[in-house]
């Protein structure tokens, strides 16, 4: 009667023994592999000159250069001349166990291995020693083999060099953004402070903040403001925990960031091409190409920008006779999502506000999205438009029956940014800024592509200095075409819109609203032209052009010649095509 139980116990013992034996084999194998790798990996000669390699950015032809990402500004200073609060700020930000750890972070290595196993890019989490090794001894590839080399070399350096040597070299070689390598150059670039000994505690904490990820914590990016403050407060808190500053000082410094006195950007950003470089830089950062990997990695970046179209677009905007306007232009290839041309402004060095990617009131340009919205709706009657003039009727048919949110959803499906609740009942009827030229060029391209949407992007491929392919849009997840409308709905919409649409959006300018609040009167209620648009598209190219006024778009447009202006600019840009009637 007990034989089955006895057999079961035997099987459990065998399985437990097999699992335990396997576990010890894996552990012993890992230990042996570590020591073999450790013994075979030597510490290469450090690059004493520490010369970064230029990253070159080209147009879509792969030959004509847009610009480059390289500006090595490095000035060394002995660790003894770097104040303790500057040292502690970096330690608080990057490696709080620096003085006691063995030079490597095994949890960080575990996370890296897990990321590799999932097919994702390696993340941060390295110790200061590992970061220094990566910069001075290794290339910028993010692979497991490079991570293992980093582990072995960091371990050897920790056994042969003291912590002061590591920290001093790290502070003189790490990348802080803005072309600054090392803490002295960073102080000069961000605050105009010549020597680290003159940096205040808040300034040191700020430098330690951007050091973590100069692209993510870029002060030129308005969207990064909250991230920068949060990271800065984390560093200040760490300095208080380390005893570098008192709790009272921490509470004081946490309130606000120190005032920046940044050096002007390099002349390589001058002119309209500076906007192309900045768009490229931001997109590269999304895929892990940032910091010293970008500025000194010797990459070869091929963009989607068409050199001839870009030259024509710049010339068309430059030839606009009306002075004082802000003009944004964006062209997208509907079938691929490739951004072919962008005019964000006259000179990036004078203003970094990109008018091609800045939202403006779209007005009637959102009305065509009522067609795919109405055709897909089964909750109520929808009279299918039969002519170009019935577009407005289709739009108001949905709005009047409280189905405006369907229009908003259809526009968002095509690539228009999320429309806020206050505008969803009647998208585009108000003066709110809802879409940029790039958004609208991409969204109208969906009509030309039979209902297929491809996320707009500006990079084709990235290769290293030896020509090895590191990234390609052709294989990047998320850049493949997606069917967002039935083909019949998109074709009908394209037919009714007729290949182009122009509109002028009226309302109260910000200037007038401020004036009304100041005088508390109702005299200035007359509507003014806030934005003038033209969108033209075909299966090959979709283009949106907007005219704005004021440094931030806060002013009303001049009354003369601005209604037709974007259409004329579009015709000058793509000359030879018939100028459509204004609608």
UniProtKB/TrEMBL annotation:
The chain crosses the membrane at residues 15-39. Residues 66-239 form the Glycosyl transferase family domain. One of its GO terms (biological process) is peptidoglycan biosynthetic process. One of its GO terms (cellular component) is outer membrane-bounded periplasmic space. It catalyses: Preferential cleavage: (Ac)2-L-Lys-D-Ala-|-D-Ala. Also transpeptidation of peptidyl-alanyl moieties that are N-acyl substituents of D-alanine; [GlcNAc-(1->4)-Mur2Ac(oyl-L-Ala-gamma-D-Glu-L-Lys-D-Ala-D-Ala)](n)-di-trans,octa-cis-undecaprenyl diphosphate + beta-D-GlcNAc-(1->4)-Mur2Ac(oyl-L-Ala-gamma-D-Glu-L-Lys-D-Ala-D-Ala)-di-trans,octa-cis-undecaprenyl diphosphate = [GlcNAc-(1->4)-Mur2Ac(oyl-L-Ala-gamma-D-Glu-L-Lys-D-Ala-D-Ala)](n+1)-di-trans,octa-cis-undecaprenyl diphosphate + di-trans,octa-cis-undecaprenyl diphosphate + H(+). Keywords: Carboxypeptidase, Glycosyltransferase, Hydrolase, Membrane, Multifunctional enzyme, Protease, Transferase, Transmembrane, Transmembrane helix. InterPro entries: Beta-lactam/transpept-like (IPR012338), Glyco_trans_51 (IPR001264), Glycosyltr_51/Transpeptidase (IPR050396), Lysozyme-like_dom_sf (IPR023346), PBP_transglycosylase (IPR036950). Gene3D superfamilies: Biosynthetic peptidoglycan transglycosylase-like, DD-peptidase/beta-lactamase superfamily. The keyword Glycosyltransferase applies. GO terms for molecular function: peptidoglycan glycosyltransferase activity; serine-type D-Ala-D-Ala carboxypeptidase activity. It comes from the Bacteria. This is Penicillin-binding protein. It comes from Kribbella antibiotica.
């Amino acid at each position: 009667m007990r034989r089955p139980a006895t057999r079961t116990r035997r099987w459990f013992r065998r399985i437990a023994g097999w699992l335990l034996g396997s576990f010890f084999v894996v552990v012993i194998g890992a230990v042996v592999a570590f020591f073999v790798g450790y013994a075979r990996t030597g510490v290469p000669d450090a690059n004493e000159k520490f010369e970064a390699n230029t990253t070159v950015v080209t147009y879509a032809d792969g030959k004509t250069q847009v610009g480059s990402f390289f500006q090595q500004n490095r000035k060394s200073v002995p660790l003894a001349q770097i104040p303790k609060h500057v040292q502690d700020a970096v330690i608080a930000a990057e490696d709080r166990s620096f003085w006691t750890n063995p030079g490597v972070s095994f949890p960080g290595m575990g996370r890296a291995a897990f990321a590799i196993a999932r097919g994702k890019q390696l993340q941060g989490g390295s110790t200061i020693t590992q970061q220094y090794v990566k910069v001075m001894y290794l290339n910028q590839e993010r692979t497991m083999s490079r991570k293992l080399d980093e582990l072995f070399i960091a371990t050897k350096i920790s056994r042969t060099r003291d912590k002061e040597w590591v920290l001093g070299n790290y502070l003189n070689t790490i990348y802080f953004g803005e072309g600054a390598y090392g803490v002295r150059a960073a102080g000069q670039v961000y605050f105009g402070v010549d020597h680290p000994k003159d940096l205040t505690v808040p300034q040191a904490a700020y430098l330690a903040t951007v050091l973590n990820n100069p692209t993510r914590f870029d002060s030129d990016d308005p969207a990064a403001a909250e991230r920068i403050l949060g990271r800065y407060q984390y560093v200040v808190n760490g300095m208080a925990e380390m005893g570098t500053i008192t709790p009272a000082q921490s509470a004081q410094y946490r309130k606000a960031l120190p005032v920046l006195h940044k050096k002007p950007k390099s002349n390589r950003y001058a002119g309209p091409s500076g906007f192309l470089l900045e768009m490229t830089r931001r997109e590269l950062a999304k895929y892990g190409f940032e910091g010293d990997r970008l500025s000194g990695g010797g990459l070869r970046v091929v963009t989607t920008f068409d050199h001839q179209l870009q030259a024509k677009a710049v010339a068309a905007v430059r030839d606009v006779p009306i002075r004082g306007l802000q003009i944004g232009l964006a062209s997208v290839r509907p079938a691929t999502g490739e951004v072919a041309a962008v005019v964000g402004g006259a000179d990036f060095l004078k203003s970094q506000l990109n008018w091609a990617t800045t939202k403006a009131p779209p007005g009637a340009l959102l009305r065509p999205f009522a067609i795919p919205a109405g055709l897909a709706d089964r909750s109520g009657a929808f009279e299918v438009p039969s002519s170009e003039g019935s577009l407005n009727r289709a739009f108001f048919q949905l709005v009047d029956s409280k189905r405006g949110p369907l229009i908003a959803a259809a526009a968002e499906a095509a690539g228009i940014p999320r429309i806020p609740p206050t505008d969803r009942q009647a998208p585009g009827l108000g003066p709110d800024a809802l879409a940029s030229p790039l958004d609208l060029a991409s969204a109208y391209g969906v009509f030309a592509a039979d209902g297929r949407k491809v996320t707009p992007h500006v990079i084709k491929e990235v290769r290293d200095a030896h020509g090895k392919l590191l990234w390609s849009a052709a294989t990047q997840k998320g850049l493949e075409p997606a069917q967002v409308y039935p083909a019949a709905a998109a074709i009908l919409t394209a037919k009714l819109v007729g290949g182009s649409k122009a509109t002028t959006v009226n309302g109260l300018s910000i200037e007038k609203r401020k004036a009304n609040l100041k005088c508390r009167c109702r005299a200035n209620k007359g509507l003014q032209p806030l934005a003038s648009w033209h969108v033209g598209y075909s299966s090959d190219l979709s283009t949106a052009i907007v005219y704005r006024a004021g440094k931030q778009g806060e002013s009303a447009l001049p009354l003369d010649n601005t209604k037709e202006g974007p259409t004329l600019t579009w015709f000058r840009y793509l000359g030879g095509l018939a100028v459509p009637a204004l609608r």
